[in-house]
């Protein structure tokens, strides 16, 4: 039996109409169980309902229907008890710009009624490369450092569950790598991590399990490896020297298509399979005397994947 730390049952949210803006149903009866100690990625395009779901779990937004329990504690009836189990790293910093890093992070700990622990806060700031900046005011920090402060604030009260809302948005490669390392370190210490993202690469790199959400519906939840197999399509585009009017029958085994008025020959393959079929495809092209001047491979986009999954554009 798997050990569930967070249970989301039948959660819907409709934001009421305001002025001329119509009512929006951001979530439709979402059921989801999060396992203790896993890294779970909630993958979906803009406006899918990811932030709404996180905000409901954190008690910032009230659901229209459904219930959430954290280790059996209902987040509405046992709000304070449930909330202290959670750390939330939001997309943006809404904190006092004139406060120092140390004061801001220490305050976050007190907010949840935890006794002061200077050694823990020091270690946390050191882990996030913020210790040297502990006396700097928030407004004096770079964007990357502000991001680290958000993480430190979320971890200040030693939560069991950490939510990261779009951790990669607006973050450079170095910080992203540090953040991923830190997340893995937290998981090793037993923290359950839930992140939202619209980058497949991020889900692929980080998660044990992935949930795909679009238009407020949770379309599927699967182990990462199983899902990546389903999603792992790539395409090879060859820019031809001479355009083709039709696909030569000799290439039929690879089911290629012609794009850009016959100037591009496209072959879609499974990047996770043992064989991609590319070498044999290129050999056959050469045997047929079809020359190309450029070649490019790309991953299928999240949008393509959604089209595959739900048969419509998100
Ligand atoms: N306070 C609000 N009032 C009205 N509608 C809202 C409110 N917050 C979100 N919505 C709407 O709910 C839907 C889901 O938004 P949400 O922010 O949860 O999506 P998201 O998946 O987090 O997207 P993003 O990646 O852009 O943050 C959107 O249509 C959005 O416009």
UniProtKB/TrEMBL annotation:
Residues 6-240 form the ABC transporter domain. GO terms for molecular function: ATP binding. SUPFAM superfamilies: P-loop containing nucleoside triphosphate hydrolases. The keyword ATP-binding applies. The keyword Acetylation does not apply. InterPro entries: AAA+_ATPase, ABC_transporter-like_ATP-bd, ABC_transporter-like_CS, ABC_transporter_ATP-binding, P-loop_NTPase. Keywords: ATP-binding, Nucleotide-binding, Transport. It comes from the Bacteria. Coiled coil: none annotated. This is ABC transporter ATP-binding protein.
């Amino acid at each position: 039996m798997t050990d569930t730390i967070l249970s989301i049952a039948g959660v819907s949210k409709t934001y009421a109409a305001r002025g001329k803006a119509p009512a929006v149903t951001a979530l439709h009866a979402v059921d989801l169980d999060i396992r203790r100690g896993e890294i779970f990625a909630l993958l979906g395009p803009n406006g899918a309902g990811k932030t709404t779901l996180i905000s409901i779990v954190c008690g910032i937004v009230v659901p229209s229907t459904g219930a959430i329990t954290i280790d059996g504690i209902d987040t509405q009836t046992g709000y304070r008890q449930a909330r202290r189990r959670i750390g939330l790293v939001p997309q943006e910093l809404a904190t006092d710009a004139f406060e120092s890093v140390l004061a801001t992070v220490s305050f976050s700990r007190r907010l949840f009624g935890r006794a002061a622990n200077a050694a823990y806060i020091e270690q946390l700031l050191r882990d996030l490369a913020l210790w040297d900046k502990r006396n700097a005011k928030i407004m004096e920090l770079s964007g990357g450092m502000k991001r680290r402060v958000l993480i430190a604030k979320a971890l200040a009260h030693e939560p069991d569950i950490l939510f990261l809302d779009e951790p990669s948005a607006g973050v450079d490669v170095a910080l992203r790598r540090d953040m991923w390392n830190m997340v893995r370190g937290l998981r090793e210490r037993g923290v359950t991590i839930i992140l939202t993202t619209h980058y497949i690469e991020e889900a692929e790199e980080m998660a044990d399990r992935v949930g795909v959400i679009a238009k407020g519906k949770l379309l599927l939840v699967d182990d990462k490896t199983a899902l990546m197999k389903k999603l792992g399509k790539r395409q090879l585009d060859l820019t031809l020297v001479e355009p083709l009017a039709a696909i030569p029958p000799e290439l039929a085994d690879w089911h290629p298509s012609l794009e850009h008025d016959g100037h591009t020959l496209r072959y879609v393959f499974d990047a996770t399979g043992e064989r991609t079929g590319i070498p044999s495809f290129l050999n056959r092209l050469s045997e047929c005397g079809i020359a190309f001047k450029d070649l490019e491979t790309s991953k299928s986009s999240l949008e393509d994947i959604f089209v595959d999954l739900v048969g419509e554009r998100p």
